Amino acid sequence: MSKPTAPDKKSLPSNGSAAGAIAAASPEALVRQLLLRLGEDPEREGLQRTPERVAKALAYLTSGYQADLGKLLHGALFSVAYDEMVIVRDIEIFSLCEHHLLPFYGHCHVAYIPNGKVIGLSKIPRIVDMFARRLQVQERLTTQIAETLRELVHPQGVGVVIEARHLCMRMRGVEKQHSDAVTSAMLGTFRQQETRNEFLSLLHKRPS
Protein backbone atom coordinates (compact mmCIF):
# COMPACT_ATOMS: atom_id res chain seq x y z
CA MET A 1 0.00 0.00 0.00
CA SER A 2 1.41 3.37 -0.98
CA LYS A 3 2.01 6.09 1.57
CA PRO A 4 -0.50 8.97 1.66
CA THR A 5 0.67 12.15 0.02
CA ALA A 6 1.86 14.74 2.54
CA PRO A 7 -0.19 17.95 2.61
CA ASP A 8 1.17 20.92 0.71
CA LYS A 9 2.71 23.16 3.37
CA LYS A 10 2.68 26.07 0.95
CA SER A 11 -1.06 26.43 1.32
CA LEU A 12 -3.44 26.31 4.25
CA PRO A 13 -6.94 24.90 4.52
CA SER A 14 -9.89 27.27 4.84
CA ASN A 15 -12.12 24.91 6.89
CA GLY A 16 -12.27 24.23 10.63
CA SER A 17 -8.82 22.63 10.69
CA ALA A 18 -7.24 25.95 9.73
CA ALA A 19 -6.38 26.88 13.33
CA GLY A 20 -4.17 23.83 13.78
CA ALA A 21 -2.61 24.26 10.37
CA ILE A 22 -1.81 27.91 11.08
CA ALA A 23 -0.15 26.99 14.38
CA ALA A 24 2.05 24.44 12.61
CA ALA A 25 2.78 26.45 9.48
CA SER A 26 6.02 28.29 8.89
CA PRO A 27 5.96 32.11 8.66
CA GLU A 28 6.80 31.79 4.97
CA ALA A 29 3.75 29.59 4.37
CA LEU A 30 1.52 32.09 6.16
CA VAL A 31 2.81 34.96 4.02
CA ARG A 32 2.29 32.88 0.90
CA GLN A 33 -1.31 32.21 1.95
CA LEU A 34 -1.83 35.91 2.58
CA LEU A 35 -0.62 36.72 -0.93
CA LEU A 36 -3.08 34.19 -2.31
CA ARG A 37 -5.92 35.70 -0.27
CA LEU A 38 -5.03 39.13 -1.65
CA GLY A 39 -5.49 37.77 -5.17
CA GLU A 40 -1.80 37.61 -6.01
CA ASP A 41 0.26 34.83 -7.55
CA PRO A 42 3.12 33.90 -5.18
CA GLU A 43 4.84 32.10 -8.07
CA ARG A 44 5.29 35.15 -10.24
CA GLU A 45 8.86 36.41 -10.52
CA GLY A 46 8.60 39.42 -8.22
CA LEU A 47 6.94 37.48 -5.41
CA GLN A 48 8.80 34.18 -5.39
CA ARG A 49 11.06 35.14 -2.49
CA THR A 50 8.65 37.56 -0.84
CA PRO A 51 7.46 35.10 1.86
CA GLU A 52 11.07 34.53 2.91
CA ARG A 53 11.85 38.25 2.92
CA VAL A 54 8.73 39.16 4.90
CA ALA A 55 9.39 36.44 7.47
CA LYS A 56 12.95 37.71 8.01
CA ALA A 57 11.78 41.33 8.20
CA LEU A 58 9.09 40.53 10.77
CA ALA A 59 11.55 38.50 12.84
CA TYR A 60 13.90 41.50 12.94
CA LEU A 61 11.15 44.07 13.60
CA THR A 62 9.87 42.03 16.55
CA SER A 63 13.27 40.93 17.90
CA GLY A 64 12.66 42.95 21.05
CA TYR A 65 10.61 40.08 22.46
CA GLN A 66 13.77 37.96 22.63
CA ALA A 67 16.07 40.71 23.92
CA ASP A 68 17.85 40.04 27.21
CA LEU A 69 18.05 43.23 29.23
CA GLY A 70 20.92 41.92 31.34
CA LYS A 71 23.04 41.14 28.29
CA LEU A 72 22.05 44.44 26.73
CA LEU A 73 23.32 46.43 29.71
CA HIS A 74 26.43 44.29 30.21
CA GLY A 75 27.21 45.95 33.54
CA ALA A 76 27.09 49.49 32.16
CA LEU A 77 26.04 51.11 35.46
CA PHE A 78 28.59 53.40 37.07
CA SER A 79 28.87 55.27 40.38
CA VAL A 80 29.21 58.96 39.57
CA ALA A 81 28.77 62.05 41.74
CA TYR A 82 26.51 63.85 39.30
CA ASP A 83 22.98 65.06 39.96
CA GLU A 84 22.12 67.23 36.96
CA MET A 85 19.92 66.24 34.06
CA VAL A 86 21.24 63.75 31.49
CA ILE A 87 19.49 63.85 28.11
CA VAL A 88 19.84 61.64 25.04
CA ARG A 89 17.60 63.16 22.39
CA ASP A 90 16.66 62.45 18.79
CA ILE A 91 16.92 58.67 19.13
CA GLU A 92 15.42 57.30 15.92
CA ILE A 93 12.61 54.81 16.46
CA PHE A 94 10.88 52.43 14.08
CA SER A 95 8.08 50.22 15.34
CA LEU A 96 4.97 48.38 14.18
CA CYS A 97 1.51 49.49 15.27
CA GLU A 98 -0.19 46.49 16.83
CA HIS A 99 -3.58 47.46 15.41
CA HIS A 100 -2.72 47.36 11.69
CA LEU A 101 0.89 46.07 11.59
CA LEU A 102 1.86 49.28 9.83
CA PRO A 103 5.00 51.20 10.80
CA PHE A 104 5.25 54.24 12.97
CA TYR A 105 8.53 56.10 13.19
CA GLY A 106 10.06 59.23 14.63
CA HIS A 107 12.28 60.30 17.50
CA CYS A 108 12.52 59.50 21.18
CA HIS A 109 14.01 61.84 23.78
CA VAL A 110 15.10 60.40 27.13
CA ALA A 111 16.26 62.25 30.24
CA TYR A 112 17.00 61.33 33.83
CA ILE A 113 18.52 62.88 36.94
CA PRO A 114 21.04 60.48 38.52
CA ASN A 115 20.94 59.43 42.13
CA GLY A 116 24.48 58.14 42.56
CA LYS A 117 24.46 55.95 39.43
CA VAL A 118 24.59 56.64 35.69
CA ILE A 119 24.03 54.29 32.77
CA GLY A 120 26.28 54.15 29.71
CA LEU A 121 24.86 56.59 27.19
CA SER A 122 24.84 54.03 24.37
CA LYS A 123 22.59 51.77 26.43
CA ILE A 124 19.68 54.21 26.36
CA PRO A 125 19.09 53.87 22.58
CA ARG A 126 19.41 50.09 23.01
CA ILE A 127 16.64 50.12 25.61
CA VAL A 128 14.51 52.19 23.24
CA ASP A 129 15.14 49.71 20.41
CA MET A 130 14.33 46.73 22.62
CA PHE A 131 10.79 47.98 23.22
CA ALA A 132 10.32 49.55 19.77
CA ARG A 133 11.04 46.20 18.10
CA ARG A 134 7.76 44.73 19.28
CA LEU A 135 4.14 45.17 18.26
CA GLN A 136 3.37 48.44 19.98
CA VAL A 137 1.22 51.43 20.65
CA GLN A 138 3.13 54.65 21.15
CA GLU A 139 1.67 55.33 24.59
CA ARG A 140 2.84 51.98 26.00
CA LEU A 141 6.24 52.27 24.33
CA THR A 142 6.81 55.64 26.04
CA THR A 143 5.89 54.25 29.46
CA GLN A 144 7.95 51.07 29.08
CA ILE A 145 11.12 53.03 28.33
CA ALA A 146 10.61 55.35 31.30
CA GLU A 147 9.75 52.61 33.78
CA THR A 148 12.65 50.40 32.68
CA LEU A 149 15.16 53.21 33.12
CA ARG A 150 13.71 53.94 36.57
CA GLU A 151 14.01 50.28 37.62
CA LEU A 152 17.57 49.96 36.31
CA VAL A 153 19.17 53.19 37.49
CA HIS A 154 16.94 54.26 40.41
CA PRO A 155 17.31 57.92 39.43
CA GLN A 156 15.64 60.91 41.04
CA GLY A 157 13.38 61.11 38.01
CA VAL A 158 12.93 60.09 34.38
CA GLY A 159 11.35 61.85 31.41
CA VAL A 160 10.57 60.35 28.00
CA VAL A 161 9.01 62.08 25.00
CA ILE A 162 8.24 60.38 21.68
CA GLU A 163 7.27 62.23 18.50
CA ALA A 164 6.13 59.85 15.78
CA ARG A 165 4.38 59.59 12.43
CA HIS A 166 1.95 56.71 12.00
CA LEU A 167 1.36 55.18 8.58
CA CYS A 168 -1.97 53.80 9.78
CA MET A 169 -3.07 57.47 9.87
CA ARG A 170 -1.25 58.56 6.72
CA MET A 171 -1.95 55.65 4.35
CA ARG A 172 -5.47 54.67 5.47
CA GLY A 173 -8.32 55.83 7.69
CA VAL A 174 -8.26 59.60 8.10
CA GLU A 175 -5.26 59.89 5.71
CA LYS A 176 -3.78 62.92 7.45
CA GLN A 177 -0.33 63.41 5.94
CA HIS A 178 1.05 66.00 8.35
CA SER A 179 -0.14 64.74 11.73
CA ASP A 180 2.39 63.67 14.35
CA ALA A 181 1.64 61.98 17.66
CA VAL A 182 3.48 63.20 20.77
CA THR A 183 3.49 61.20 24.00
CA SER A 184 5.33 61.70 27.27
CA ALA A 185 6.04 59.85 30.51
CA MET A 186 7.29 61.81 33.51
CA LEU A 187 8.37 59.96 36.65
CA GLY A 188 9.78 61.14 39.97
CA THR A 189 11.15 64.67 39.95
CA PHE A 190 10.07 65.11 36.33
CA ARG A 191 6.52 65.46 37.62
CA GLN A 192 7.59 68.77 39.14
CA GLN A 193 6.76 71.64 36.82
CA GLU A 194 10.23 73.21 36.98
CA THR A 195 12.04 69.98 36.03
CA ARG A 196 9.51 69.15 33.33
CA ASN A 197 9.86 72.62 31.82
CA GLU A 198 13.67 72.40 31.84
CA PHE A 199 13.54 69.07 30.01
CA LEU A 200 11.08 70.27 27.37
CA SER A 201 13.01 73.51 26.90
CA LEU A 202 16.31 71.66 26.33
CA LEU A 203 14.66 69.44 23.71
CA HIS A 204 14.04 72.44 21.50
CA LYS A 205 17.49 74.00 21.87
CA ARG A 206 19.84 73.21 19.02
CA PRO A 207 23.60 73.82 18.80
CA SER A 208 24.36 77.16 17.13
Protein architecture, described:
The chain has a five-stranded mixed beta sheet, with helices on both faces. Strands 1-4 form a two-stranded antiparallel ribbon. The protein has eight helices and seven strands, in the order ααααββββαβαβαβα. A hairpin with a 5-residue loop joins strand 2 (86-97) and strand 3 (103-113). With 208 residues, it is an alpha+beta fold. The model is unreliable at 1-9 (pLDDT under 50). The protein folds into two domains: 18-61, GTP Cyclohydrolase I, Chain A, domain 1, CATH 1.10.286; 75-203, GTP Cyclohydrolase I, domain 2, CATH 3.30.1130.10. The longest helix is centred in the last third of the chain and has 16 residues, at 138-153.
Give a quick summary of the entry.
Helix content is 37%, strand content 24%.
* Major sheet attributes: 5 strands, mixed
Poorly predicted runs: 1-9
How many domains? The number is 2
Output the number of helix runs: 8
At the first level of CATH, what is the class of the largest domain? Answer: Alpha Beta
Question: How many strand elements?
Answer: 7
With strands numbered from the N-terminus, the spatial order across the biggest sheet is 5-2-3-6-7
What is the CA–CA distance across the termini?
Answer: 83 Å
> Which whole number gives the mean pLDDT?
89
Structural class: alpha+beta
> C-alpha Rg, in Å?
22 Å
